[in-house]
Amino acid sequence: MADALSLLRQFTIENKEYTIENDRFVFNDLAYTKDIKTNYLVYGTGKDNTPKDYYTLESIVFLLKNVDLQHANYVKKAAEKGIPAISRPDRKDLLAYLNGQAHTADRIDRNAPLEIAMQRPLQVNKRPAEDPRLDNAKIARVEDDDMQKLKDRREKKFDEKNKEITADQIRPLSGELSTEAILKLRAKIRATARDKIVDLKENEDTPEPSTEPLPITADTFEIMKRERTWRNRTTVLQSSNKNFAKNILLILNSIKAKEESEQKQEALAAQRSPIRDTTTRVPLEGYSRYHQEKFVQRDDSEFKIDTHASYHGLTLKTVTEGATPNKLLSTTNSSISKPITPINDKLNTSNSDTSKRPSRTPIIIIPPALTSLITRYNCKELFEDLKFISTEEGKASGTKRDGDILIQRKKGNFTVPYRITDDPLRLTKQDWEERVVAVFAQGPAWQFKGWPWSGNPVEIFQKIKAYHIKWAQLKTDANIAKWSVHLIELDQNKRHLDCARIRTFWDSLDQFIAKHKSNLRY
User: What is the total count of domains within the chain?
Assistant: First the structure.
């Protein structure tokens, strides 16, 4: 359905006339109220978070009727009529659009809500009694006497058509079908034919369906006048916003709710129906004396038979002559079986022998001293968010950081866990050899007291990647300068560079792990 502005433009271009009835503009079968809002924006609205405002249909029609007036006189006349005037910046583009000189205008809002037009009825009858179709004199009626005459005439015609035929006029068709049999069949057919006559009087009460439209009364017209078409096949496909995901989600949610309700009903129906036991039962076996051989070991030593003996590797002479008693005894003693080990004992021994699966989470060691720039109170923000905060700010946040800290590093579309600790003495030998990948050195050599490799920093930094974080304005520690340590310098005045500086830590650590400890997750 076209909007009011497009309909007015069409009538203006084609020089069609539209009428004004009371407070409505009537365009053929459609009618709009005078104060209806069009989709043409008022100049200066809809920008800088200002609410949108649109011109009314009455204002645009008034401009078309007074287009020859100067703008000042037009504004004055509109004020006298109490009609909002069209502003000067909008006047030129609006007239060009209405006269067909332009296909569209910049101020037309395609997302504006459209008002629904009123349908104008084509046929109105004030009084049903005045309808000539309802005149009793012009309605054909069949009286009871006429119905009886028609019935008698039809029966008389049927009797004339079915006069009795004598036996002389009928000849037998064959030897089996005689003349008397033919007369009986004819009488039977005539008797059944009388029952098939339809009595029109009985079906007089059933009205025939009428194809003519019913008249519209004045009351019906008053009801139709207030009706509005809320949605049709065109408006239902239009969205009020540019992002129409909300409308689609509403449809999908309704479909999902319908499917879930059907599934619930099916589940309830399945619960109410009796469940048959379809499991196959293993038939119970009877007692057999041979079953004891499965559980009791055979004792063949009484017959001096070596069940584990073999002729493999023996010559024919040895086999034919037989073994000596000494050899037989040795084989008999060696054939004494060992006691059977229970299955549970085997499982226990196998579980104890198998070692625990080693962890693949890398470990990073930080200084325990709170004077260091990196501590347990700010390491999580530093490694995860690439953002440096002071130790005091980390304490003020109230987050408890007891024991080791597990961080999640975002790398692409997944995360990688890292374990942060400031107590390296609790690490095992396997952790030092396989999982420790980085250490943050503070400067003093006593930091590495009790560490593996005799606590020698030079040897430690050959096994583990070493880092040192400091302010760029401060001087580098003497020990740090002579050790193989990767420096991370943060600028106190250029804090926006922290992210890029900390990112270099992860890049160098990835290279170290890939080269020396590629079995870990990184």
Answer: 2
